[in-house]
């Protein structure tokens, strides 16, 4: 039995059939199933039958091999910063699950298409799945990105898990004034799957990092095809699907730009900060003591008592920004105690306006700050930043800083 053989493995009442792959552990068999997934099977008590020999020529990789990246003075320098996630992941052959493993140099080896597009520098800030992301990692990441720019990087690509990418992108958009593009990218499907999006997303992100748009962007598949990636402003993007490759959408507008994968061409639809327009500035103080409260019919008012222990509250209200009338007096008490309360909407489009109905007017009288058309998650991140960096939190929350809100809501602007 050798790597490349087609095998049928039976263990504990389960049958797996596919191509045997090299394993990093002697205790486990690794089988690539016909559907494209890899599965790890404990060799103990496993019954293995070779169905066909040498179906594929599978070479054993050299674990000690190092990539040789040649420097070309005619190419821009792009910093690849890894925080973990599926784009930088391998299969855990003990369980068959995907786990974050790669550092930035590993990504270069895994995506040879990146060769010749730029000179690269690689750094690892974290090696975590994005559900484990925290504000202190945002701060560390902001510092590393700033260092890379100070050391001459012409653009930065941040590899990040997709589940919380929008929060980290928002945080860096508030913490950094940047003279070069900062592009977040990830992968919805790991490299072991035939439908993986890691190569195209990585290539398009490097192209975006070479562009003249000096903003924080998120670069992911534009649609279900492999033609282009969309470029979303970091404070206006939301992950709207659990598993599709085109899971990310700009809310209320079209994406700010796109990258044609075949042509390697970057185009932008709207005005944006241009390369070199701003000097690098870092305001990375954050107050993480902010609660995001989602109101739905029947939500116990006691959630406000818990949230009141924080230094700031964002409420995701209904429609134009409403909650049950019974909440208003408690909100009034909270704001009187000096805790800012920002109102956003659970609607995916449009803006908060608490001047239309009695409930909204009462909320304004209770001291609620209208969150304009900010996404609730973005509003939470911005309030963390405003509490640490602004003397007038209400004024800061209602003033656009990084494209997170607009003067008026116009679809497809």
From TrEMBL:
Annotated ranges, domain GatD N-terminal: 1-51
EC number: 6.3.5.-
Domain spans labelled L-asparaginase N-terminal: 78-271
InterPro entries, per the entry: AsnA_fam (IPR006033), Asp/glu_Ase-like_sf (IPR036152), Asparaginase/glutaminase-like (IPR006034), Asparaginase/glutaminase_AS1 (IPR020827), Asparaginase/glutaminase_AS2 (IPR027475), Asparaginase_C (IPR040919), GatD (IPR011878), GatD_N (IPR040918)
SUPFAM superfamilies, per database record: GatD N-terminal domain-like, Glutaminase/Asparaginase
Active site: 86, 162, 163, 239
UniProt GO MF annotations: asparaginase activity; ATP binding; glutaminyl-tRNA synthase (glutamine-hydrolyzing) activity; transferase activity
Main enzyme class: ligase
Taxonomic superkingdom: Archaea
Transmembrane segments: none
Entry keyword set: ATP-binding, Ligase, Nucleotide-binding, Protein biosynthesis, Transferase
Asparaginase/glutaminase C-terminal domain sequence ranges: 290-396
PROSITE patterns attached to this UniProt entry: ASN_GLN_ASE_1, ASN_GLN_ASE_2, ASN_GLN_ASE_3
The reaction(s) this protein catalyses: L-glutamyl-tRNA(Gln) + L-glutamine + ATP + H2O = L-glutaminyl-tRNA(Gln) + L-glutamate + ADP + phosphate + H(+)
Gene Ontology BP, a term: regulation of translational fidelity
SMART domains membership: Asparaginase
NCBIfam families, alphabetized: asnASE_I, gatD_arch, PRK04183.1
UniProt subunit comment: Heterodimer of GatD and GatE.
Family in the record: Belongs to the asparaginase 1 family. GatD subfamily.
Protein function: Allows the formation of correctly charged Gln-tRNA(Gln) through the transamidation of misacylated Glu-tRNA(Gln) in organisms which lack glutaminyl-tRNA synthetase. The reaction takes place in the presence of glutamine and ATP through an activated gamma-phospho-Glu-tRNA(Gln). The GatDE system is specific for glutamate and does not act on aspartate.
Protein name: Glutamyl-tRNA(Gln) amidotransferase subunit D
Organism: Natronoarchaeum philippinense
Gene name linked to the record: gatD
């Amino acid at each position: 039995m050798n790597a490349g053989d087609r095998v049928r493995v039976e263990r504990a009442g389960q049958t797996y059939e596919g191509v045997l792959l090299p394993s990093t552990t002697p205790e486990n068999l690794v089988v690539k199933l016909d559907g494209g997934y890899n599965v790890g099977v404990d060799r103990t008590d496993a019954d293995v039958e070779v169905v066909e020999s040498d179906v594929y020529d599978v070479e054993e990789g050299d674990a000690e091999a190092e990539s040789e990246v040649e420097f070309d003075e005619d190419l821009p320098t792009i910093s690849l910063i890894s925080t973990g996630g599926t784009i930088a992941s391998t299969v855990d052959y003990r369980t068959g699950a995907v786990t974050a493993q790669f550092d930035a140099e590993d990504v270069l080896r895994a995506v040879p298409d990146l060769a010749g597009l730029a000179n690269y520098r690689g750094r690892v800030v974290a090696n975590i799945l994005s559900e484990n992301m925290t504000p202190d990692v945002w701060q560390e990441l902001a510092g590393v990105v700033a260092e890379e720019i100070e050391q001459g990087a012409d653009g930065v690509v941040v590899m990040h898990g997709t589940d919380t990418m929008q929060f980290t992108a928002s945080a860096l958009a508030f913490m950094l004034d940047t003279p070069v593009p900062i592009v977040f990218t990830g992968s919805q499907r790991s490299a072991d799957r035939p439908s993986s999006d890691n190569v195209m997303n990585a290539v398009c992100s490097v192209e975006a990092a070479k562009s003249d748009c000096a903003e924080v962007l998120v670069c992911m598949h534009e649609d279900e095809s492999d033609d282009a990636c969309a470029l979303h402003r970091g404070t206006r993007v939301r992950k709207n699907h659990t598993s599709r490759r085109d899971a990310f959408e700009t809310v209320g507008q079209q994406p700010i730009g796109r990258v044609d994968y075949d042509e390697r061409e970057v185009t932008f639809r709207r005005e944006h900060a241009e390369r070199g327009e701003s000097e690098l500035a870092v305001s990375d103080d954050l107050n993480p003591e902010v609660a995001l409260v989602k109101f739905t019919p029947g939500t116990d008012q006691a959630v406000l008592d818990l949230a009141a222990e924080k230094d700031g509250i964002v409420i995701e209200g209904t429609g134009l920004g409403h909650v049950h009338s019974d909440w208003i007096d408690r909100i009034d008490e909270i704001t009187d105690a000096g805790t800012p309360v920002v109102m956003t909407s659970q609607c995916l489009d449009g803006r908060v306006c608490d001047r239309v109905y009695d409930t909204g007017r009462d909320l304004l009288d209770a001291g609620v700050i209208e969150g304009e058309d900010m996404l609730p998650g973005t509003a939470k991140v911005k309030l963390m930043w405003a509490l640490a960096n602004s003397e007038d939190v209400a004024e800061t929350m209602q003033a656009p800083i990084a494209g997170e809100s607009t003067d008026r809501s116009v679809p497809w602007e």
